[in-house]
Amino acid sequence: MYITRKGEPIEVPGKQPEVNEKAPNFHLYDMNEQLVTLSSLAGQPVIISVIPDINTRVCALQTKRFNEEASRLEGIHFLTLSVNTKEEQAAWCGQEGIEMTMLHDPEKTFDEQYHLMMPALGLYARSIFVLDANGVICHREIVSEMSHEPDYAKALMVAKDLV
User: Which stretches make up the Thioredoxin domain (predicted)?
Assistant: First the structure.
């Protein structure tokens, strides 16, 4: 698969999980060093917001917007995931006054199952996954232009319909 960055193609190799497939499990740590796995979130819908780098404008917009929207939703797990370190994520959250579940993946282990890495940049492609309570992917968006925001309304509509 290819996406673009300011019109230039960037490869995102591998097969990304599709709608109606069971989402692959992952094992990542939040900012409190608590292990979060997809299997530990079973029983409630999950929104996974994947961002390339928390310290960029569009990633910050995406994270703030989903954090704001997620705070209004009951019965849905919401996660933001990036290759940033725990310290980078904590500094950003502190600066923005935001408390949320952020998963850090500087070792890029999430890519082993989800195949969202852009090797040319060492970052994940901007993506949204909405999973039902059984971990089946009900909505997937891999944003085709890296500098664009995802379709928040669509992802949130799907998530709300799952509650």
Answer: 17-163
Q: Is residue 128 a contact partner of residue 114, using CB atoms and an 8 Å limit?
A: no
Beta strands in the chain (DSSP E): 2-5, 8-11, 27-29, 35-37, 46-50, 77-82, 102-104, 117-118, 123-124, 127-131, 137-142
Enumerate the domain spans of the chain: 2-162
pLDDT tens-digit series, residues 43-69: 999 999 999 999 988 988 889 888 888
2-162 classified as CATH 3.40.30.10: yes
Residue by residue, DSSP assigns 54-86 as TTSHHHHHHHHHHHHHHTT-SS-EEEEEESS-H
Model pTM score: 0.94
